[in-house]
Write a structure and sequence with these properties.
The protein has 359 residues and is an alpha+beta fold. It is 31% helix and 21% strand. The protein has a domain of 216 residues: Glutamine Phosphoribosylpyrophosphate, subunit 1, domain 1. The chain contains ten helices and 13 strands.
């Protein structure tokens, strides 16, 4: 399909020119064909959303609306204790408390709902959907979000799993030599938490999921436990409409994962949809937004020795006609896609080639 050809062609160009810095957006111009309607449900998500795309596509085929379908899809990941970036099992803030953020947006009505810094409720995306449909508000936070969730029958539960607690404790014990937290005296046992986190005690993970049905109607969701070990109350881009998620039923949907502060400052999802409105193919729209993020980066703490970002952001975009794309600042990323009856992972386009040792 045209969307697949666009990404493959761009990746070949990017690999050849990576040493020169950000690739030219012209590499993708005109490469994506357009159609009046998708030939079947199309669902895209971040790489941890492969089960979500399959479930959402299944529900859309049964007549469920795109926004309800993607919320049901990401619920699988929110309930998975082995995914430390969302819901149950998500990594906590610096005090060891899991705080969850989520937003939803419905294309046909252009309504949205979101929650931020929500504690003790496993499925923030479902609460965000209730905010959209049962309030006159767009965003509820903290204690108010919890009170609202409980009023609608959501049950409080402990979200910090034993594995996530061990990861948090290791961070507490190792991140400073100027406090009284000490690691165990015995040698590390390379336990499950260390292995499953790949030796990394931080995560910037999130799941964004967007869908379009046979009628060209769109819906989207973004859900996360946020930056691990964050300052309590920190809110990233995920629950911010226009930053971590945006849907315009006349154009398309977009979302993001990665460093939320960078996405917020550049209105990432909204900017991506606006570029698609101007006729840019989804993958090119994602790349142009990432270039804005890089161009606006002035903090030396956030740059590597070559002056490039020392963090990653991924943008995801789905057009009303079913074409799609995703791009990252750094190479090596993937995203989930369900289209033409197939559910799979595909490689993202990118701005910079990651050195081989960092792959």
């Amino acid at each position: 399909m045209a969307g697949e050809f666009t990404r493959r062609g761009f990746l070949r160009t990017a690999a050849a020119t990576a040493a020169l810095g950000p690739v030219s957006a012209s590499a993708t111009q005109g490469a994506a064909a357009t159609a009046r309607k998708p030939d079947g449900p199309v669902v895209i998500a971040s790489a941890n959303g492969l089960r979500a795309t399959a479930r959402a596509a299944e529900l859309i085929a049964q007549g469920v609306t795109p926004v309800d379908a993607v919320v049901a899809g990401v619920a699988i990941v929110e309930a998975d204790p082995d995914d430390h970036s969302v819901g149950y099992g998500g990594l906590p803030n610096e005090r060891g408390v899991v705080e969850l953020d989520a937003s939803v947006m419905d294309g046909p009505t252009h309504n949205s709902g979101a929650v931020a810094a929500l504690q003790r409720v496993k499925h923030p995306a479902q609460v965000a959907l209730r905010v959209m449909r049962r309030t006159d508000h767009a965003l509820l936070v903290g204690a108010g979000a919890l009170e609202f969730a409980k009023a609608h029958g959501f049950k409080e539960e402990e979200l910090l799993t034993d594995e996530a607690r061990e990861m948090w404790l290791k961070w507490k014990e190792r991140h400073s030599d100027r406090d009284d937290w000490l690691p165990p005296l015995e040698p590390p046992d390379n336990g499950a938490a260390e292995i499953k986190s790949g030796g990394m005690l931080y995560t910037h993970g999130t799941i964004n999921c967007d869908a379009v049905d046979l009628h060209g109607n769109l819906g989207g969701v973004t859900t996360t436990s946020g930056l691990s070990y964050k300052i309590p109350g920190r809110v990233g881009d995920s629950p911010i409409i226009g930053a971590g998620l945006y849907v315009d039923n006349a154009v398309g949907a977009a979302g993001s994962t990665g460093r939320g502060e960078a996405v917020i400052k550049n209105c990432g999802a909204f900017a991506t949809v606006e570029l698609m409105r101007q006729g840019k193919p989804p993958v090119e729209a994602c790349l142009q937004v990432l270039k804005r993020i890089v161009a606006h980066l002035t903090d030396p703490r956030l740059k590597d020795s070559s002056g490039r970002p020392n963090f990653d952001v991924k943008m995801y975009a789905l057009a009303k006609d079913g074409t799609f794309g995703a791009a990252a600042i750094w190479s090596g990323g993937q995203f989930a896609v369900h289209s033409a009856g197939r559910n799979r992972l595909e490689d993202t386009a990118y701005l910079y080639e990651r050195p081989p040792k960092e792959q």
